[in-house]
Amino acid sequence: MKKIQGEEVRWGILGVGDVCEVKSAPAMNLVQGSRLVAVMRRNARLAEDYARRHGVPGWFSDADALINSPEVNAIYIATPPDAHHDLSIRAFAAGKPVYVEKPMARTFAECQQMITASEATGLPLYVAYYRRTLPHFVRIRELLHAGAIGDVRHVRIELNQQLRPHVVRNLDNNWRVDPAVAGGGYFYDLASHQLDFLDFALGPIRAATGLVANQAGQYAAEDIVTAAFAFECGALGSGAWCFSTGPGSVRDQTTIVGSRGQIEYASFASGTGCFTLETDDASKQEFAFELPGHVQQFLIQAVVDALLGRGSCPSTGVSAARTNWVMEQICGAAGR
Q: What range does the domain containing 116 cover?
């Protein structure tokens, strides 16, 4: 893959919405060899406002104008998923590498087309599955690979979230529950992080199936998903995701069970990343790691290092596409 010429990645962002306020974009001015030089939003007033508040020198209301700006040599696509495919193709055609938000696209077919364009142009494609670089998730992976719980037998995911009608009824703004925009509902938005990390920690999932339903009737997308899946390594997995529970049932827990112990963690903790390790020959151990203020910072550093030829990035289009494939197997076109 082609590297960026010079010693600096000059970012242009397409779609400076909520994710760019704290999670991602500010880190582009903090990591070594990186600078945010331009932003774009279709609403010119909002694009200018973001640029002013964050000290960004350039702003646009037209995507192609930013993509083709000579000041920009790398593109971060932070729009909703329905634009990821088209904007990636246009960025590659302009000769610029792409870092795109998750999920990578609405469908596995769109992911494949993005990968094809990346390979045809020789330009890298990275995806914002930042858990692959957060310290507690990295440590979990290290423990698994070191055999801390023996051979992994099975994985169990449970994610329950409270129904918030005041959020989901505002469908003009809540693209996350519009399958035409997001590919699915909150399952696509949140479970994609969980499944991608398991791909990173245990290797690819080779088979998956599931059941979906809309029980609360608040929006078009599924609001409950159950799944069974099998990893290439031989481990099996199951999951249940419900987005219409009461406050007393809220839960975020993944358990990885091995032949000699287990690891348990939450996927969506903020501030501090924690997990527990229990083994047959030791007492229960608790681990806690401070997380960066801009949660994508470590992954952005990895992307920058890869683009400048001084390192590698663990979250690529190829790995991210596998997560889209798994979600499609679980949800299934007929299941929707």
A: 9-131+296-310
